[in-house]
Amino acid sequence: MSDSYVIPALPVPSLPVTGTRARFPVRRIWCVGRNYLEHIRELGNDERQPPFFFAKHADMIAQDGATVPYPSLTKDFQHEVEMVVALRSGGTNITPDQALGHVYGYGVAIDLTRRDLQTASRKKEQPWEIGKSFDLSAPCGALKPAAEIGHPAKGRIWLSVNGTQRQNGDLAEMIWNTAEIISRLSLQVSVGAGDIIMTGTPAGVAALAPGDRIECGIDGVGTLKVQIGPLVD
Ligand code: MN
Hints:
By secondary structure, the chain is an alpha+beta fold. It contains 6 helices and 17 strands. The model has no long low-confidence stretch (mean pLDDT 96). The site of manganese (II) ion has 7 residues, from loops.
């Protein structure tokens, strides 16, 4: 075994934690698709199908206050505000009643989406990466430890653009709750410390433009601000 790398070792993506200078290291980003009924309806999807998972890469995180360039290839770049759950431990085949014991804390995130590309790839039965998984597609705010706030199961989740409210829902509307999400994901992969899961978005997703100022939050969890920059070239 060598103890060196042929290129410099890469930094570990991380998130701030409210109340401490220590940061939360991020291993994987999982996202739940279609976890709020009103959002399934607004996109015209089948409301009888259960939610499911897709992924973004950890280095696609954008920090609170960041400017995210308008991404390439899209003409329909959309916001999806979501609660993010951060794991301190994990495993496989975790039962719902064990699941919350693996949670470190919670935060606010935006699942930025190139909706036109996502829709096109779905129609062609191709994977979703082009629509969902791109640079800075995962803005995340500071985490709040579950030791301080418990496990939020209800509370307003909202997003505004340039001061106008676009999304407004409640965590209680989630089809799979946090415990069920962790349990389900652990059937599919081994989940572990450092994993964060975006838990789905309520209704009101809409298009963004360069210069837009996004503000979003979840009652009792936190807030997040992002600005959209000029088109990336
Ligand atoms: Mn989403």
